[in-house]
Each structure stands twice: as C-alpha cells, then as structure tokens.
Amino acid sequence: MKAIFSGLAAATAALALCAAPVAAQGVVKAQYGDWQMSCDTPLGASFEQCAIIQNVAAENQPNVGLSVIVLRTADREVQLLRVLAPLGVLLPNGLGLNVDGKDMGRVQFVRCLPNGCIAEVVLDPELIQMLSTGTNAIFVVFKTPEEGIGIPVSLNGFKDGFEQLP
User: Fold this and answer.
1) Residue 103: half-sphere exposure toward Cβ, Cα within 13 Å
2) Rounded to an integer, what distance in angstroms lies between the CA atom of residue 28 and that of residue 145?
3) Contact, 48 vs 166, CB < 8 A?
4) Average pLDDT for residues 68-85, to the nearest whole number?
C-alpha cells in the first residue's frame, strides 16, 4: 500500500513540468461537501481546466496550512493529487498521508515556489477509491526530522467532486 503514495514520485516529477498551474486561480463553479471546484483557462490553452480544492490549516498551528488540489492533466490522461505546503517544511522527509487511520506512506516534494513547496502523486484507482470512500485524511509535513505536523483534510464531498472533474 505504501507504494501507492511513495513509489510514484519519479513519474510525478516528470509530469509536474507539463501539468496544470499549481493552484487554480479561477472561478469557483461548485461546492462538493468540503471541496470546491475551481476552473480557469490557462494562458495559451483552448479549454478550461478544473480542479477540486480544499485549503486547510493544522488545528494546533493555524499558521501551517495546505492547499490540496486534485485535477486531471491538460491531456485528460492522468489524475493528480497535488499538495502545496508552506515554505519552511523539511523537504527530505517529504509529505506523509494517512487515510482513515491507514498509513499510505510519503511522497517527496518536487519543487518550491515563492508561495510554498509542491508534492504530487498520480492518483491510481486504489488511492482514488480510498479517498472516495474515506472520511478523513491526514497530511503530515515536518518541521524537524522528529516533529511531524498532522493536518486533517475532510474527504466529505471528494467522491462527488472527483466524478465531476472534466
């Protein structure tokens, strides 16, 4: 199971260069539970691209937040889970994921931008199923090798929002 989240880092690093913008800056088109569908037409694109997004903060450290973004690549061939973490996280430890108490492993950060660092993974059918039927996910970022900060993400509405992605 850990391979689902950690084994695809190399493939996603290559995809990151050709994928959509980090976070959709467009118009919120719909709300699915705790997820918003935001759509925008990227520069030079002939069609609109949409993503479902949830912005969350750590319960005990409100200054530590994440943007969790799920989208299909521009060619509509691949679904990505992209997480924008704040600057200052420990990059070598990567980003951990736990879904309903099940450790899914870690994925490495692929790049940092002025507004944060990005980790992303290709969503395979098994991970999509877990996120669609689950209730809670916890993404873990690290400030030190020993100190992980768990940031809860509600999966309420994920399935409906994911099914509506164009």
Assistant:
1) 4
2) 37
3) yes
4) 93
pLDDT digits (tens, 9 = 90+) for 42-53: 888 788 889 999
Residues forming a β-bridge with 141: 149
**Structural domains for the chain:** 2-164 (2.60.40.1880)
115-139: burial string, b at 16+ Cβ within 10 Å, e else: ebbbbbbbbeeebbebbeebeebbb
DSSP 3-state assignment of 13? helix
How far is the C-alpha of 49 from the C-alpha of 28, rounded, in Å?
Answer: 12
Q: How big is the chain by its Cα radius of gyration, in Å?
A: 15
